[in-house]
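Table S4 entry, DNA repair protein RadA.
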Amino acid sequence: MPKWVGRCPDCGAWGSVEEAPALAAAVTGRPGATSARGGAALVPSSPAMPISEISGTSSLAKPTGVSELDRVLGGGLVPGSVVLLAGEPGVGKSTLLLEVVHRWARRDPQDRALYVTGEESAGQVRLRADRTGAVHERVFLAAESDLATVFGHVEQVRPTLLIVDSVQTMLAADVEGVTGGVTQVRAITSALTSLAKTTGIPVLLIGHVTKDGAVAGPRSLEHLVDVVLHFEGDKHSTLRMVRGVKNRFGAADEVGCFELREDGIECVSDPSGLFLHHRDDAVAGTAVTVTMDGKRPLLGEVQALVAHTTNPSPRRAVSGMDSARVAMVLAVLERRFGIKVSDKEVYAATVGGMRVTEPSADLALALSVASAFRDVALPAGLVVLGEVGLAGEVRRVTGVGRRLAEAKRLGFTHAVVPLDSGDAPPGFRSVEVGNLGEALRVLDGLPPAAPDRVKRSLRPVP
């Protein structure tokens, strides 16, 4: 039975117990109702509203000014969102986010950006900003690793964008565990997420990765944030890619391309040019294909070299492709179509540091190997698409229309594609093949398939 309490049973202080209404009965209609955890139900701070009466304009994305990053984010940063950018050391994460805060502050006089670094000193970050041209009066910099102090900087500066570099270097004094540990990282991310949701400030977190390339820290870290991005790049190449892994506000399979230079980082809106080697004459052992990285079609060149050897165990060297698929294609060529390469060294590679992982490049690989074996070049202006099966059949791939439209935009005129691939873009000639043997006819100067399989289209690509 409820009764008056004038003295706290825990601390013994008088008059410290506040009266709260018994709401469970009012809400449920049953006296003495309790919540799922066994306590009395509480009045919510704001009542539930019909979804039709809730405004969606407060969640509109605001562009950062970095076009390729906005492409991956789904248009820009949503107020109150938390974005985690993970990548290997030295890939350019800090350089990219310095460019973001610079353009963010430059776009609107009302915008301020706060960059908090726990890994470097303020002077080191300033030197990088000078080198990349990212110095702006509305970009504030703080070298702090204590979470409470970071919150104090937020209250003083009142930014419209917060960068934390990195979440593994922050420390919450009231939480047990070492810096970068599971408990600390989870608590710090939860606190920053709560800050973003209550203030509407978008927060960009830099995260470390493990040796396997996964985001370092507890798995719940990726569940707490709204967007997870992976920043990838080869140390021998200037190309960098931001790949969406999770996105609550847009597509999770978009890819943004950048070029890392000494004076900063720049967006690459047309990365296909980096993956093609432009030459005047056709060369044996090369074939051009179109891969899909997320929703983005990318043209790439596959090169092969077949060389004689006296070594009883011929070498197989692969760069930029899956070595297992290369071995499979070589076995199909030898067993099904008489291209004997088991006693020869075979080298297969892509151009420009491109990595090809999807099976749509199988046919291009097969034709490049056959071209190098016969020392006959493929026709100029040709792109090749298709997955090769163990029986030598050429299987369909997704997004053929978008791939061919991108090839036509870059000046290619015709393509070899699998059967039932649909219509080609206007003015573009596509030839459909059912097996690898029909595709190999292009090396002999013959039509790759029967004339009734040649399709021309006057309709636009859907």
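The CA atoms of residues 47 and 53 lie 12 Å apart.
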